[in-house]
Structures are given as C-alpha cells and as structure tokens.
Design a protein that fits this description.
Organism (chain B): Buttiauxella ferragutiae ATCC 51602
Strand order of the largest sheet of chain A: 6-7-8-3-9-10
Oligomer: heterodimer
Protein name (chain B): Autoinducer 2 import system permease protein LsrC
Keywords (chain B): Cell inner membrane, Cell membrane, Membrane, Transmembrane, Transmembrane helix, Transport
Shape of chain A: globular
Membrane topology (chain B): Multi-pass membrane protein
Subcellular location (chain B): Cell inner membrane
Distance between the termini of chain B: 10 Å
Radius of gyration of chain A: 23 Å
Largest sheet of chain B: none
Largest sheet of chain A: 6 strands, mixed
Chain lengths: 499, 343
C-alpha cells in the first residue's frame, strides 16, 4: 500500500430504517488507487452504505473518517468538498436541464471545461447531444450522463453504484479504461456490480455484503467465484426453485392456454418507430431472446407489440387473429403482457401498496378484495421470495430487486399467453437473477411464450431456445439453441454474420 | 415556428403585440408610448407578484398567500407613516413584515413539511386576519403626499416605483438565468434528490424562494398604497391566483424547473393589458374576469396544441428512416400528419 492512511474509513457503521436495521456495524476502508468492488444481494445495504459515504444519509452510530478526519454528520455539500462523488444506481438527472448543464452542474466555471468535457466524451466514444434536454434521453444514455458527471468532478473518491447495468460491452470496456486511468491518478473507487466477470477484470479488492453486514473481504486474486457466490447467497436459499415454490408458481388452471408449438404470435413485415420490416413467429412454451445494441429497436418493437406505439406498416397476429389496430387494453385481455424496461418510471406505482401493484392488471371485480389480493401477494411472496413485511407496504420501500419481483408477479397474475419482458434482470443481484431465470423457465414450461429482451448477452445462452438479433432496426438473423454464444450474438448485433 | 415553441417568452410577447395591434386597429389614437406606460403602471403589482411566484414555482412549490401579504404590507407602510415615521423607515418596515411572512411560509413548507398549497392556504387566512385585527377592520386613509409622489411619472411616463419594478425584474432575471445561485432554484424544482446529492442547500434555497416572494409582495403592497393613496381592508385579495395565472401564461411550469422571469413579466403584462383594453373599449367591468379567463384558456390550449404538433413532428423525424417497404400497399398505415400552423 503506497499510502497507509485510508482515504475513507468506516468503523462500526449502523443504520436503521423504521425499526429494521439495514446496516449492522459495517467496517470498510478505501485506499488511494484502489478499486474496491462491493458485492451483495438486493437489499443487502450496499446503496445505503454508499449514500452514507456521500452524505445523503446519516448513520445512526459508528464513525466515518475521510482523509483521516472524523465526521459525525457528513452533509452532501461537505462530501463534495472532500471530493467524494456518488454515481447512483438510478440516474438522478434534472429532466428539464440540458445534458451539458446536467454534467457541468455546480462545477466552477473554467475556460477549458468545455474542452475537457469533449475529450472525456471522445474517450468514452459516447455521442449524446449536449444540447438536448435530459428528459429525452433513454436510460442507458442517462446512466452515461451520470458517469460523465462523476468523471468531470475530478473526485478523489468515486463511488459507482452499478454503472454498467445498462451499458453495452463496448461502453463498459471504455468506462473501465477511464477507471484505470483514475486509479493511476490515485483516486479511490468503490465499484458496485452484480457481474462477477467485470469485477474480476477491474477490482483489486472485494467486499461482499449480506443482510447489512460485510461477510467476506479480501483481495480479488485470493477469492474464488464459488466463495463469492456462497457469501452472497443467504444460507437458506438454493439456486433452483424448491418444489413448494414451483407449486406456488403454478398459474391458474382455468386460464386459456395453447398447446406447445402453437404459433402464439405472428409478425409480418412489421415496420414501426425504430424498426423496419420484421417477420417472425413465437410459439407457445418457448423462450425467445431478443438481442441487439441499445438503440437497435428492441424496446420499440416490444412497445409496438403491446400497443404503446403506432404500427406504420405490416401486421401483428395474436393466436391467428390480427391485433395490429387493437388497443393495449384488449391486447392485455387477450393475454399479451409486457414488463417494461424502466420499472421506476413506467412499471410500478411506487407509492401504492404491494397489493395494488400485484393485482393492477387483473382485478376480478369492481370492488377491491383485500383478502383475496393479500392472498395473491402471499403466494408470490413465497414463490419469488419477495422480501416484504406485509402486503400493504408501499413499493418504494422495497429494494430494486424486490421491486422487479413485484413487477414480475403482476405480469404472472395477469394470466399471460405471451409474456414480453424487457431487461428483467437490470439492477438485480446474482441470487435474485437465478430466481428470475428459474421463474421464466417455469412460466415457459406452462406453455406461455416468452420474449425476453436483455443487454446482458450471457443470460441468453442458458435460457433461450432461440435468439433473434437486431441491428439498427432490422432483423440480422436468428440463432438456435446449441449455437447461441455470446460471440456470435455480439458479432450479429454489430451487423456482422454468425461468428 | 420551432423557436416560438422553445421560447414561451416569445409567444407571450407576440400575444402582447397582437393585442396591442387590435387595440390600435380599432382606435388609432391609442398608438402611443403613453398607452404602454399606462398598462405598465397598472401591471406593476402583478409583475412583482409574478416574479415572486416564479421563484417559488421553480422550486416546485406554490404560494397562494401573497394576496394577503400584499394587504398586510400595505397596511404596515400606512400605519408606520401615519404614526409619524419617515418614508424610508416605513418602507423598510413593510419589507421586513413581507420577509417574515414569506419566511414563515417557507418554515411551514420546508421544516414542518406541510404541502405548500395547504400551508399557504392557511397563511392566506392568517395574514388577512392579522391585517384586519391590526386595523380593527378600518381602512387606512390620509397617507402623506411623499408616498403618493413615488408613483408620479418622472420619465417616459414611468414613476420612480415603476423603475424600481424594472430594476427588480432585471436583477431577478439575471440572478435566475446567469448565476449558480439561481441555477439552484431550477435544480431543486427539477429533481430534489439529485440537487441534494450534488450538494445544493435545498432547504435554504426553498426558504429563500419563499422569503424573496414575501419581500416582493411587500414592494407590491407599497406600490398599492402609493398608487391608490389609501388602503382598503380587502387589499390584494385574489391577486395570488392572478400571479399564478401570469406565471403559467409566461411558461413557468407548475411542476417546477422550467420558466424564466422574463416570461412571468410578460405574462403579468399581458393579463393586465387585457383588463386595460376592455376598459378602453368601455365594456362593462363584469366582462373583465370572464374574458380574461377565456383568453388565458385560449392561450394555454393553443400552446398545448402547438407543443403536441411539434412533438409529433420531432417523432416523425426521429423515425423517418423506418418507412414500410411497400409504400402505397393496402396494409400501410399513414403516420399521423403534423398539422401545419394550428395558429
């Protein structure tokens, strides 16, 4: 270690939220030039700890030392002066300000700042229009703006909370180059991610958190993947669903189904906003992956199938009946369910109870039936392992992964015939991911057709029966089960042939 | 066309020019600087309130108590003058009262976390009641000539207080548009959590917005006393809604984070201009509110339509590459066409 005093030192930090302790006597130290990866399940307390470091939250007890100086109550302004900058998990932009204003917000005026910004953008090869208002950006671009904001601050301690969640592999690689450059300048970096290969690539040290405590800490080279996953996974949980869980997951028997290999969805020469001339079929009981770079028209296609965007040409058939002109409500009634990409904005009612959110697509009568609905929540609570206190809790109080599970529960409760899921594992930890994969498989096994969009191409090889790859709005090809590899998907996503 | 949409101030200015043109077309003798300065004179109070409301609305709050604050401060300046204090002392006293009233609103909203509309609805009654208790319900009359002299025209038909209003608008516009401090107001209203995390003193900013608003209402109260020469006990009632309407006309979003002081200024000017034009046309006074409401709605509906048209156009352009392969085929759906010139 070149410098023996830690830049950031946490000692016995504890924090409670409404009686539940989320952090239990955390010890953590970050040294100059270190990339310290923080791993852990959703709700393990990583984000809370980071917020305490950035002064956004205050610890109930414990000691926080920055550059060797103790701070009892760190304020966000102070943290900034000390050079701590947090890039949060969910992008926090000012929607009405331009991208430039967002990035340079509160930075002292310097003559060369524009040049530095241009240079950073060139190094990251990102092409976000600086004059556009932030509200027009897509999630991935918003994340990029957040990262640029962090890089422009010249922070001494940079905290990156899942920065790569919605970046493409190329962007991730360029970000890592920046991180290494900062590391050489002696910047201390805390890096939160759920992707183990990434962490192996970039981090020098790893801490694993579980249920508000640090359970494993050490140098990256000394730790095995097995150890890390074991440390993250709660002791009472395995990676496959138990038989009782599967039982809880059984969809209602009286729902309409189609026999396996029945073409549930047929799309003919479909053109819409962001894609052109697509034709494909989806069969009951199969999982089809939809791969492509951000901006290749994947999400637009899903939204058009669901009826959120207009069809400009071509037809969509659901169970051999044309639905191109139907409204979303009637598509829903016919069993076409869509799980949106951005759970915070277009998915959940954050201030409503879990109960409402779960049954939102499927209310049996005019009246609310709290008992029946609570029973539904209880069923998914057991089946998906949603961490909750009771069904009346507001969704905002849940952690990211649990929110995603509530959203999944809602889609399953709507009796899907075709389930379209857009980035179901974005911001979800390893253990919960495995749950969600199992869940998708068990849904498909019940003769539901699943169309899954994901930027994490690793997911498809184990899960999908077929993968459709899009490139700039056009279908660039299809891969079938044994030949689904990350390399061939990547090369096709960039417009090439099968690798 | 695009510039017009991106610039709400410009469309407010055009509305003002158009209304002025109508006035002149119907009676050529009104084509003079005098008409403008006359409208400005009657708009001064509303302009100040609109500027204050801008600051509060930018931080995603609202203040519906300013009408009462205007009354309270008008009373304060009147009482101080009538009990023998000098003009500067009386005006400072009124400013102080306004600042306290605004700060109290801020305390309720920021520290006690009462939603702004409810909190200021409470203080709307509280300040009005305080004003009535103070005077025992009586009007304040016999204000000294020195106060009234402040609203006599000195140059190009504008009074000293009129120039003060212009200076205040200029300072507020400069502060909000150019300084980092002003940028904080936008940031707080746009995304409170992000502003806090980037080290903005969010509570201080919101408290200051309310306090500035109270002080601007105090100046409005002084202008009222000076222009009218006496202070009735219903002074300022109803002004709060007009101020908010002026802001909305000028493009300040109720959801916070967008709008400029210039927009608020023009919106307030336009609202007053409607009243004045109706007076000049000798329409009965009871038409005023009706027509003002109609115009307000008309402008907002038109603006909304234009914005939709623009959004449609942008969308069509963004996806212009994706045209169906067989144009003219039976199954091709036409993309909704952009309506040209809804105006």
């Amino acid at each position: 270690m070149p410098n023996t005093t830690a830049m950031l030192e946490a000692h016995h930090i504890s924090k409670q939220f409404s009686g539940v302790s989320v952090l239990k006597a955390i010890d953590f130290a970050l040294y100059a030039g270190q990339v310290h990866a923080l791993l852990g399940g959703n709700g393990a307390g990583k984000s809370t700890l980071m917020k305490i470091f950035a002064g956004v939250e205050t610890a109930d007890s414990g000691e926080l030392k920055v550059h060797g100086k103790a701070f009892g109550r760190l304020k966000p302004g102070q943290a900034h002066e000390l050079g701590i900058y947090l890039v949060p998990q969910e992008p926090m932009l000012f929607p009405n300000l331009t991208v430039r204003e967002n990035i340079l917000f509160r930075l002292p005026r310097q003559s060369d700042i524009e040049k530095r910004l241009q240079e950073k953008m060139r190094q990251l090869e990102c092409q976000i229009p600086l004059g556009a208002t932030a509200s027009t950006l897509e999630v991935a671009d918003q994340q990029m703006v957040e990262i640029l904001r962090g890089l422009m601050r010249e922070a001494k301690i940079l905290i990156l909370d899942e920065p790569t969640a919605s970046l493409t592999p190329g962007e991730t690689e360029r970000l890592f180059r920046q991180i290494r450059a900062l590391q050489n300048l002696g910047v201390g970096i805390v890096f939160i991610s759920h992707k183990l290969p990434e962490i192996r690539q970039i981090a020098s040290h790893i801490s694993v958190m579980r249920d508000g405590a640090v359970v494993l800490q050490g140098e990256t080279a000394q730790l095995l993947d097995e150890q890390l996953i074991n440390a993250m996974t709660p002791l009472d949980r395995k990676h496959t669903l138990s038989d009782t869980q599967k039982l809880w997951l059984a969809l209602p028997g009286n729902r309409r189904t189609q026999p396996q290999d029945f073409p549930v969805l047929r799309v003919e020469e479909l053109t819409g906003e962001g894609f052109i001339d697509l034709s494909f079929e989806l069969y009951a009981g199969e999982i089809v992956g939809l791969a492509g770079l951000v901006g290749s028209g994947r999400t637009e296609l899903a939204e058009t199938l669901y009826g959120l965007r207009p069809v400009r040409g071509g037809r969509i058939y659901l169970e051999n009946r044309e639905i191109s002109g139907d409204r979303t409500k009637s598509r829903l009634d016919r069993g076409l369910i869509y799980l949106p990409e951005d759970r915070q904005v277009s998915g959940l009612f954050l201030d409503a109870p879990i109960r409402w959110n779960t049954v939102a697509l499927n209310e049996a009568s005019v009246w609310q039936q709290s008992k029946r609905e609570a029973a539904v929540v209880e069923r998914y609570h057991r089946a998906l392992g949603i961490k909750l206190n009771n069904a009346e809790q507001t969704v905002r109080t849940l952690s990211g992964g649990n929110q995603q599970k509530v959203l999944l529960a809602r889609c399953l409760e709507a009796n899907p015939l075709l389930l379209i899921i857009d980035e179901p594992t974005r911001g979800v930890d390893v253990a919960a991911r495995a749950d969600i994969y199992q869940l998708i498989k068990s849904v498909a096994a019940q003769n539901v057709a699943v169309l899954m969009i994901s930027s994490d191409l690793d997911e498809f090889s184990g899960l999908a029966d077929r993968v459709l790859v899009m490139h700039q709005g056009a279908m660039n090809g299809e891969l079938r089960k044994p030949s689904i590899t990350v390399e061939s998907m990547m090369s096709m996503a960039f417009g090439g042939g099968k690798a | 066309m695009k510039k017009l949409l991106r610039n709400r101030e410009l469309s407010a200015l055009l509305a003002i020019v158009a209304l002025f043109a109508v006035l002149v077309a119907l009676n050529h003798s009104y084509f003079s600087l005098q008409t403008l300065s006359m409208i400005f004179t009657s708009a001064q109070i509303l302009i100040l309130l609109a500027v204050g409301a801008t600051m509060v609305m930018l931080t995603r709050n609202i203040d519906v108590s300013v009408g009462s604050t205007v009354g309270l401060c008008a009373i304060a300046v009147g009482v101080a003058l009538n009990s023998g204090y000098g003009l500067p002392a009386a005006m400072l006293f009124a400013l102080l009262i306004g600042a306290i009233a605004g700060f109290f609103n801020g305390v309720l909203v920021v520290w006690l976390r009462i939603p702004a509309i409810v909190a200021t609805l409470g203080t709307l009654g509280l300040y009005r009641g305080g004003m009535l208790l103070w005077t025992g319900g009586k009007w304040i009359e016999g204000l000294p000539a020195s106060l009234k002299a402040l609203s006599e025209p000195v140059a190009i038909g504008v009074s000293p207080l009129g120039f003060l209003v212009l200076i205040v608008v200029a300072i507020a516009a400069w502060m909000l548009a150019r300084t980092a401090f002003g940028r904080d107001f936008y940031a707080v209203g746009d995304n409170l959590a992000a502003a806090r995390q980037l080290g903005v003193a969010v509570n201080r900013t919101r408290l200051l917005a309310f306090t500035f608003n109270g002080m601007l209402a105090a100046i409005a109260g002084i202008i009222f006393a000076s222009q009218i020469g006496f202070v009735p006990n219903q002074t300022g009632s109803g002004l709060e809604m007009k101020a908010i309407a002026a802001c909305v006309l000028g493009g300040i979003s109720l959801l916070g984070g967008t709008g400029t002081v210039i927009g608020a200024f023009l919106g307030a000017f336009f609202l007053t201009q409607i009243d004045t034009v109706l007076v000049l046309f000798k329409l009965p006074a009871w038409w005023n509110d009706f027509i003002a409401g109609l115009v307000l709605l008309g402008v907002l509906v038109l603006d909304g339509r234009l914005r939709q048209a623009l959004a449609r156009h942008q969308r069509a352009q963004k996806y212009s590459r994706f045209v169906p392969p067989l144009p003219g085929a039976k199954n091709v759906r036409q993309f909704p066409r952009k309506k040209k010139d809804v105006a």
